[in-house]
Amino acid sequence: MTKTLRFAFAAPLALALAACGSGAEQSGEIQGDAIAAIPAPAGSEWRTTAVMTEEGGTLVGNPDAPLKLVEYGSLTCPTCARFSMEGGEPLLEYVDSGVVSFELRQFAVHGPLDLLLQRMTQCGPVEAVIPLSDQVWANYETIMQPIQANQAAFEAAMQRPMEERFVVAAEQMGYLDFFAARGISEDQGRQCLADVGALEDMANYTQRYSSEFDITGTPTFELNGNKVDANTWGALEPILQRAGAR
Question: Where is the Thioredoxin-like fold domain (predicted)?
Fold first, then answer.
C-alpha cells in the first residue's frame, strides 16, 4: 500500500464524526453591491456546466463567476448531508445567475468508506458528480446503516488485495446496488473501485487539503479563497448576499 493510501486508511472506522460539523471559524466575508446576472451560453444552463478542477474538485457554474464558493465536504458527514438537503437547490439558483460558481472538494474524513463513496460518485460523467453526492447525502441513513451494522465485514474486506477490497466492500454493503439504481452500472462500479491509481489520487487530494489548505473539518466553505464562518445554508446564504449575490 502506498504512503498516501496508508494516510487515508489511518482514519478511524468507528465513525465518531469528530471532524464533521467542525468547519472553519475564521471569517473572510466579502462586502459588495449586487452583481448583475451573467447569462449562460445560448441553449445551456450554468447549473449543468461542470468541470473537474486542478485541485481535484468538481465545479459547476460559470468558471469565471465573480463569486467562487468551495465546499470541502465528506460523504459520511451528517452536517454535510444537512447542508445538501437544505441548500442544494437554493445554491443552484445562485449558480444559475452566473454570479456564483460552486466547487465540491470531497474530503475523506473516514478514510476507506469515504474513498469508496467518492470513487463511485466520480465513476460517471463529471456532470453527475454533485448530483450523485447529493443522492448519497439524501440517503445518509441508508448509506451508513450497513457499515454500522457490520463493521467487521467492512474491515475484513479492507484486508484483501488493494484492487479487490473496495469492490468486495461495496458488494457486501449494498453500495453497488445503490449506485446502479442511479446510473452507475454494477460492472462500471466494479471497474472504478478496482482502479488503485484513482483511489490514490483521491487520497492525495485529502492529504493536500489537510496539509496545504489547513482543512480540519467538514463542511468547510471558502469564498474567493477565504474561509467563512458557516456550515449551514442558513448561515452561508447571507454571506453570499452580502458579497453581491442576489
Answer: 55-240
